[in-house]
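Page 37, top half.
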Amino acid sequence: MYKSTISLELEPSNENYTVDPPTYEDHTMTPVTSAREAEVLVEEHTDGNGEGLTKTILENIDSLPTASCDGLDLNITFTETVGVVGTKPSITDASSREFKQGDFLHGYVTIKNNTDEPIRFDMVYVLFEGMTVINTDKSPEKHRFLTMVDLFASWSYANIDRLVTDQGDPHDWCPGEIDPFDGTSLSIDARRLFQPGVTYKRFFTFKIPQKLLDDHCEKGLPQHAELCPTLGINREEVPASLLLSSSRLRDLSMINSYISYSVNAIVISRASNFGVVSNKDRYIVAKKEKSPIRMIPDPAYFDYDANTHYHAFVRSVEELVKPELTPTISLDTIKVKQLYHSRNMEKTGHYQCVQPFKKKTLTGSSNAGVISMSSKKTTYCINYIPPNHGVKSEVVLPVELRYSGSSQTPEIKKVDVEVVALTIQSKSHPIPVEFTNEMLFNDQEILSRPATSNFDTILVSKFNNYLQELSQAVKNGVKIEYSIYRDVKTLASLSTKYINLTVMDLDFVQEDTKVKLNSVPWKSEEGDLVKKFSIAMDLSKCNLKGVNNTIKGLDKITLVPSFQSCYISRVYYMKVVVRTNGATLSLNLPLRIER
């Protein structure tokens, strides 16, 4: 809505600001206001298909050149409550808080002309914005997913009531109104002039919405319409000293990619007002101030199956490419599969890893049987831990080991658990699906040797194959809908970052009693040897791998809540590794972090 009600055309008109705005004698009638007077001027552009595209100054504000006016001071101050004229404000540090949906942002913007001459402007905007910035090989890709305009704080001819107690005249822009508390001017010259030596104050209030607009995601994916947490750092705006500080927040994001929220105050003027001479006058950003806030939203719960949409999309692609879906399987893996099924070791409703158990001999090693590790299929949840809070996050993982083979009894050498933080991002186009556990790791791993099975091997590589098939089909003259080709290319081009955190101080539990793992006996069950136990751990005791010992625990490492959006997603899982004297078993279990 803001794009059609508060906007200026990209090329300035010949409006004369020295003339007072129109007045209306009959306040009982709705005035017929011209497009210019209502600030609803847009510029029509045409895309390659000849279709009209509406471009407004708010949509293109990042592309406007900046000519910072040194004589103009612009500041944003946050307050705990709504600002009231004549009352001392209760100033607060918004950077020390974490906000969520429904919270209010109160404060005021001050603008001061420190020169001896009036400074002419065209528009003042006070906005609350959410922005995703993706690092690319060229310039960063910016995607603004939230923009809210405070109509009272922004400049306009109208007098807009801010409080329920206000009874203002909408056609009276209150010239000369002064706040008796600090002597600031509450109204700006209707001729759009900042007078010399005058400090202007504009109160603002924003309520953080519960979710984004439904049409924000072109695919209509519910999770993409939810507010994301703040993630990453805008390195251009953060001092180098803070980036190098040991106390800075580490949320394991991709370098130079981030999700940010901020209250912005922007003064826009014509280039000619600052002596910039060109063939065609244009708008510039005369001054801009940004105050970031940290957003950690409450979780949203969905009672639908995202796999349904994903499988429908895959079927539509496979109907076009008809790929060879049977992968190349080694002879050893085929033998393991045959033995695995003949022993009836398959466990439904469980995540499971199956490996050949190798018996070492003087001449090498030989298959002595099959060993598997399984755990019940469930999603483990822990609460988000704010920085420097030291809250425990205890999790208990039930594990079953099952061995079928020769008389040799397996011996467990070591058990490790890691928390994996996976960041997924798309550089140019929105992600067309919602990610599920099925895309992160397979329910069953039946392998002849240890291998890495993750999001890249399961999903990204598959769509790389689809993309090659589609490209070949296009060369052969097959007509393919562009949206399908683009979505396949997007999934094939996803970039990922895996950060593994080692979980320290594991405990082993059987029947609610701590035990030593070697004391848990192997029991005979349906002709197999079975060992059942649970791994108890405190996930707040996580260490970054390969770094010095100062970065320990979730006091130093911040795991933001799990989320998915059109361009960046963050998911977690736990990697359980059991090393025996004849095989190494690895199992991935889903983990969700919620506020």
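Page 37, bottom half:
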Amino acid sequence: MGSDVKYLVAVVAILLVVQVKGQQNTVNEHNEWRYLTCRAEEDIVLDGKLTEVSWQNAEILTDFWMSFPVDDKKADSALKTKVKITYNEQFIFIGAECYGDDNYIIQTLKRDNKEQNEDVFGVVIDPVNERTNGFTFIVNPLGVQKEMLITGQTGRREILEAGRTPQGVNLAWDNKWFSEVSNYPDKWVVEIAIPFKSLRYDESKPAWGVNFFRVDAKSNSIHTWSKVPIEFNELDLGYTGELIWDNPPKKTKGNISVIPYVLGGVYRDFEAGEPNDFDFQGGVDSKIALTSGLNFDLTVNPDFSQVEVDEQVTNLTLFDIRLPEKRLFFLENSDIFEDFGIPPMRPFFSRRIGLDEDGNSIPILFGARLSGNVNKDLRIGLMNMQTREKNDFQAQNYTAAAFHKQVLSRSVIKGYVHNRQATNSDTSNYNRNIGLEFLYRSVDGRFQGFLGYSKSFNPGVKSKNYFFNSGIGYDNRSVSVYSNFAGVGDNYVADMGYFRGQEYYDAVRDTSIRIGMTHWYTRGSYTFYPGSSKKIISHTPGFRIIRDLKSDLSTISVETELSYSIRFTNTSNLTAAYSMNHVNLLYPYSFTDEVPLPAENYKYQFGEITWFSDMRRRLSFNAGASYGGFYNGTRYRYLLGMKYRAQPWGNFSFMFEQNTLDFPAPYGKVELLLITPRIDVNFSKELFWTTFIQYDTQGDNFNINSRLQWRFQPMSDIYLVYTDNYSVDKRIPKNRALVLKVNYWLNL
């Protein structure tokens, strides 16, 4: 293990030296992409018209660059985009004229939708101009809004599946802002007003980082004002221009938002044989801007019944699946707390608070969080949450503190302290963690390297309680390589974190065993662009190697995958992969109801192919199939997904996945089905109905979740949510709930 760490340190050092020598010509230096904004001369009426004198006198930004599918030329003049900016004491105003015919592609009228491949205009704002975190505001030609947090580097541009967002982007973040759109035969015009209250900025900064982008879905092209290389997402903060203030905005006063809620509901647990349980409760969230960059959040008796239900997946690994956080309180500035470790090993994972391992709710009494920018180089986060006692789950207090200190240009030194403490008389029931990391990122975002070390503290534990992580990566137009190496000791515990592979289930003894392990992940790919082809954008052959070892360096598992992807100009893509696996099963484990597989070595291979059709069409689909070995048996997998879009008011989708696992006697055979129809109907931009059905034989659950949402004022909603769960095997109900909830966003 020591030689591996030395190797990674050496490689990181080499990358640092190389980058220091070559970084002066690698990023937008703000000398070409600058905009001087002036204060509005009169009140701006938000109507999507841009008729005020202030708009007529504002400087015009145009000459957008192509960012995708090529990045070496200006955008087509027929798709010209013009942008203007002004402001007053309350808002920053952005006006844009997006030229082109009015045959728009609109995926939905639903706010904050996850859909890709639709016409939009967006702005990226980095108020502290340090390229580490920022905000994105997006509007489509029918005025549907979407806002996101950007946390550092958004990563290499990938083939995006429907509903998937880039890394480093938090789509679940919500805030109040305003926009209006007007449509014409040759263009659509959008007028945006973003309250300074919604942003966290440094009032001493004379310039902010900013970029503008336009997606034209018909041509499958993305245009940006400040030039962004094709390998990076248009949201990347490393390629912003500068928004220069004639008079920088001052700290906003009275920046306090209060969001109270009330709800009434009825719940019945059929499995426990209990009668209907009626629930009436209320609570409140509040957001207080202590400074223009530092925010204080408070929640009392929070309720998350309106949060969209988790999407079930067929899990054929030995470990629990990490499901995303969707609860609003935990989302703003979430990267301050969570951006540590590597994806399968996270010291902090907010879903551990207020939810048990099965995703069931543990009532939260109250919570408080302080987060944001102290100054241009320092971000901090401090969170405290108190839960109630529920059944055998004791009342707990969770405290997390973290800091991110920017050094060099885009590099960060960051650290954290976590404490989970039972609040009963047992003072020995606690878990504490402390850690420190250094992340190096070049100015242009192509190079990265990181090192980190952490210790956990539990009663009576004094050794093997460490966690370390390290990694390197490089991206350019064609080459993408990345490797990380991490490990945990036998006695390292992170009750507020997620560590995939640290706990193994023994099916014979019906118990879980914690082990120490090291994890090595390496991937690489080469993308080439056949410019002469009118149908294909790129070919990408690639590989990845994942190796897990025990503390004594004996093998747990090795996975080697070779892949080839083709991305087409019509947004479709095709991927084929071949995987070779070696698994040393540490403890007996069963994927069927028969005899568990014995703890021994298994070697097997399988191949798979996946196809995504043109997602811009009214009817689109994706399909996949895989076949090959699985431990000492065989696995067949079939996947079919279909979606019909009734533009713009409805989306009707259906996904079918079947996995057949066939083992030799006496280990059994099983067919796992996952069927998920979904209906989204948008009666208007304020009234939505979503019904999501999940039939999951692996989890023995048939779930119906139906939600009616009326946004009667900006960020203020009425929800009517119906949830029903049945046992697939027994064909009997498990539990059922009906909830009516009202929340109101009030700015003071």
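Margin note: The helical segments are 2-22, 53-57, 334-338.
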